[in-house]
Amino acid sequence: MEPSLASYLALSGILFTIGATGVIFKRNAIGMFMCIELMLNAVNLTFVAFSRYYADVTGQLFVFMVMSVAAAEAAVGLGIIIAFYRNRVSVDVDDASILKN
Amino acid sequence: MVLSAVFFLFAGLAIASAISMVYHKNPLYSAISLIGVFVSLSCIYITLAAPFIAAVQVLIYAGAIMVLVVFVIMLLNLDDAPSLNRLHYLYGVGAGLGGILLIQTFFIFYAVLRAPNHAVAENQTVGKTLSIGSAMYTEYLLPVEIVGVLLLMAVIGAVILVRRLNQPELEKLVDEELTRRNEEDEIGDYRISI
């Protein structure tokens, strides 16, 4: 007996919500970045579950695309964090307020 | 039955690791908890008969991306984030928004589940590397190429972002260039005046 589709979707929803609340609560740029990765993973789980239950390979293919985009995001996002740290000696997103006023 | 047990074991592990990731203030502990989430999700992909995605999950997420994140944390020498006391009143708002989002997600899934009748399909070749590869290079060739271009752009952008040309060097370069142009202008004026 296999777990039903609903349990996979429920797990995905819980993980996505944890990631979203983490983005709200965390003020550390790297922490927010990791929460975004968690949200991407929750969506990947939905893709794979539907791919399994509809017997369609497209879902798994798009998981691969999402992973590529996450890798690109990691490269550029961490580059931005390092450049920001050089200017402000901090990774707190509250310090990124140069455009305020 | 075994699949159900494995699923619930790793689902609990994934949720616990995710909560621990959000809870910890130290970014390094958060990163290690996130690796726990990725490995648990990889095991869950195996219960979904998707061995290729499970392997790629460990290789790319736990192997490449998290190594990069841990490397940056070590490079910047980040300690515990200082606790903010001016945002405490927003915690309730954040928790409320999270609850609303969870309800919304479950409502969407409920609506999706009501529509068709799901039985596990008998076609067992879906998760295999062969079927993914053949779909990737025939039907979905253009998206794969676009992703390749995207990755190239990301690599170039990251290099340009992080490259450092520090200020004195930059000013020296600009000064040299300006004096060179001035000298050329003076020579040119001289020749014209003759």
Describe the structure.
- The complex is a heterodimer of chains A (101) and B (194).
- In chain A, helix 1 packs antiparallel against helix 2.
- Chain A is mainly α and 101 residues long.
- Chain A has a domain of 66 residues: Helix Hairpins, CATH 1.10.287.
- Chain B has 194 residues and is mainly alpha-helical.
- Chain B has a domain of 79 residues: NADH-ubiquinone/plastoquinone oxidoreductase chain 6, subunit NuoJ (Four Helix Bundle (Hemerythrin (Met), subunit A)).
- Chain B is built from 7 helices and no strands.
- The radius of gyration of chain B is 27 Å and the shape is extended.
- The chains are: A mainly alpha (101), B mainly alpha (194).
- At the A-B interface, helix 1, helix 2 and helix 3 of A face helix 1, helix 2, helix 3, helix 4 and helix 5 of B.
Q: How would you summarize what this structure contains?
A:
The complex is a heterodimer of chains A (101) and B (194). By secondary structure, chain A is mostly helical.
Topology at a glance:
The complex is a heterodimer of chains A (101) and B (194).
Chain A: H1 5-25, H2 29-54, H3 58-88
Helix pairs in contact in A: 1-2, 2-3
Chain B: H1 2-23, H2 27-47, H3 51-76, H4 90-114, H5 129-137, H6 141-162, H7 167-193
Helix pairs in contact in B: 1-2, 2-3
List descriptors:
heterodimer, A: 101 residues, mainly alpha, Helix Hairpins, 77% helix, elongated, B: 194 residues, Four Helix Bundle (Hemerythrin (Met), subunit A), 7 helices, 0% strand
Instruction: Report the principal-axis shape of chain A.
Output: elongated
For the secondary structure, the number of strands of chain A is: 0
Distance between the termini of chain A: 60 Å
Name the chain pair whose interface involves the most residues: A-B, 71 and 79 residues
* CATH-defined topology of the domain at 28-93 in chain A: Helix Hairpins
> Could you say what the CATH topology of the domain at 1-79 in chain B is called?
Four Helix Bundle (Hemerythrin (Met), subunit A)
Any idea what the CATH superfamily of the domain at 1-79 in chain B is called? NADH-ubiquinone/plastoquinone oxidoreductase chain 6, subunit NuoJ
